[in-house]
């Protein structure tokens, strides 16, 4: 070790070189972050405050990746991961930290994004404590497990991080127990019926993915089998066995995806048996979830997230509200009882059709939905004399379109409520609006415990 540590006098680290490191914080991907000779080092599995010996695994011009060889000083936040495949699976990044430590780390991940992408005075900014879960396990309502074969047996799970090795998973402890049970039993059925599974290496075979979703409040389970072609051998027997062994499965569908892609679903979906959708309830709202319908993966935290958005909107019953990127209208309808009028828009017609149906189902007659982009519709409405008091947005991870933000600057709603699933794009977007809008507060919400993901509700107020 002494000989290896002497090499630290070199100006450039080398792969397999070992060196001491003090970890300063958790990075955006859940890794420990430290500095060696003024160069950032990312170390998965290391925690803030720990003193570790690191071995360099990859050396880049501006940063180094490494792995822990020895922990010299252990963090009081360190926990023993309860998952048996935690280090090989790659699905979770933070099981080695106490849950209280995870909530602190996620707030800091948000702060890091603001430091990197804005010039805001973070000392005076109201960045609130992360809202967590009472039980941060078994919270996911949907699993998408890739299928393979090992030693003549069907396996299903996730690919290890940076690897083509499929990790067989029977019991994922962040998944609802129903999805675990159903997926495991379907593996057995496929094995018993000798249905061919997809071989990723040789690009041949039939069954690629088992998608399982459960309604937390209803207990209804939906299964989608993703295949490379429409024809399934012994299909009727397969359906009969699923229905016989798994009575909780009330909806079975098939999706065909012949493409060589990491995207799970293909274009064509076929209903095989049972209902075409399952039901889920959030408070007084009931949602119909078809095989391809988007729905939040953590229903328990979704209620908290939407209530935070409602709180940030601060409605009194007199406001006109725009729900941009509205999808099926979920968040806008959540706020509707306190708004004078809701107008939602999206470029996806099917989503707008669902939003209209949801508004009708929930008896919200003052919510109206339009196919189109906000940057096109909002200026048109302004010319007609209709201007929103509040604009609510829940964009994809890529953040808001720059044209949309320019439209916000033009239309100038009194409040802009930004629900984000990516701190980096959130920070860039609010920095772009800083001349017109003051950041009143940021409220992080933990939608995905045990992972490095963090959602945030930000209230921006017109200056």
TrEMBL record:
The keyword S-adenosyl-L-methionine applies. S-adenosyl-L-methionine binds at residues 296, 325, 346, 394. Keywords: Methyltransferase, S-adenosyl-L-methionine, Transferase. Gene3D superfamilies: 2.40.50.1070, Nucleic acid-binding proteins (2.40.50.140), Vaccinia Virus protein VP39 (3.40.50.150). It holds the Pfam family TRAM. Residues 12-70 form the TRAM domain. InterPro entries: MeTrfase_TrmA_AS, MeTrfase_TrmA_CS, NA-bd_OB-fold, SAM-dependent_MTases_sf, TRAM_dom, U5_MeTrfase_fam. The keyword Transferase applies. It comes from the Bacteria. One of its GO terms (molecular function) is methyltransferase activity. SUPFAM superfamilies: Nucleic acid-binding proteins, S-adenosyl-L-methionine-dependent methyltransferases. GO terms for biological process: methylation. The active site is at 421, 421 (nucleophile). Its EC number is 2.1.1.190. PANTHER family: PTHR11061:SF45, RNA M5U METHYLTRANSFERASE. Belongs to the class I-like SAM-binding methyltransferase superfamily. RNA M5U methyltransferase family. This is 23S rRNA (Uracil(1939)-C(5))-methyltransferase RlmD. It comes from Bacillus seohaeanensis.
